[in-house]
Amino acid sequence: MAGYLFVMNQERDRREACADKLLAIYRDINVFLLEHSQDGLYLFNEFGLAEAVFTPMFKRFWFLDYYEDFRVPDTPEYLRVLAWRDACMSHPATQQVAREEIVKLYFDYALGAGNGALVDGRSVSSFAFTPHWKDRPWPPREKYAGTPTDEALGLVA
């Protein structure tokens, strides 16, 4: 939930608090992984339920990289969770979603409108099936600069 609250945040001065909350969760996961699976790629011997649950979230957090310039630090307190995340995201079973797709479809989340809700001043959700996300321009990275039009987002002709 912390990642979604972070991307949906509309107050610049809350960015650091959102990042800190998410980093605390990553640290907790790191501790758990060190306790239960210090040496393996996955929680257990192979890609399993834990990875199937967390990988979609990890992939969705591409929107945090894009809209908030958020990165989990490459420091000792995160090394195990980063290795696990990388293994999860590179597993062949998880390749059906692209970074570009997540960033484009979840743009309205970055503007504070989730689950297909419409952003004020717009008539089409970024989750719309047409036009296809591949045919749309990349949304602006600066989510705090205002709401682009449906036309600017490639959502209408």
Task: Briefly characterize the structure.
By secondary structure, the protein is mainly α.
Question: What would the keywords be for this entry?
Answer:
157 residues, mainly alpha, Glutathione S-transferase Yfyf (Class Pi), Chain A, domain 2, 7 helices
Describe the overall structure:
The chain folds into 2 domains: about 1-95, Glutathione S-transferase Yfyf (Class Pi), Chain A, domain 2 (Up-down Bundle), CATH 1.20.1050.10; about 100-145, no CATH class. Helices cover about 45% and strands about 0% of the residues. It is built from 7 helices and no strands. Helix 1 (about 1-10) runs antiparallel to helix 2 (about 15-35) and helix 2 crosses helix 5 (about 80-90). The chain is globular and about 50 Å long.
Structurally, the number of domains stands at 2
What is the CATH topology of the largest domain? Glutathione S-transferase Yfyf (Class Pi), Chain A, domain 2
Task: Point out poorly predicted stretches.
Answer: none
Return the CATH architecture of the largest domain.
Up-down Bundle
Largest beta-sheet characterization: none
Could you tell me the strand content as a percent range?
A: under 5%
Helical fraction: 40-55%
What's the SSE pattern? Answer: HHHHHHH
Distance between the termini: 34 Å
Average the pLDDT over all residues and give the rounded result.
95
Mind telling me the CATH class of the largest domain? Mainly Alpha
Count of alpha/pi helices: 7
Query: From the alpha-carbon coordinates, what is the Rg to the nearest angstrom?
Result: 17 Å
- Strand segment tally: 0
- The helix-and-strand class reads mainly alpha
Shape: globular
InterPro entries: Glutathione-S-Trfase_C_sf
Protein name: GST C-terminal domain-containing protein
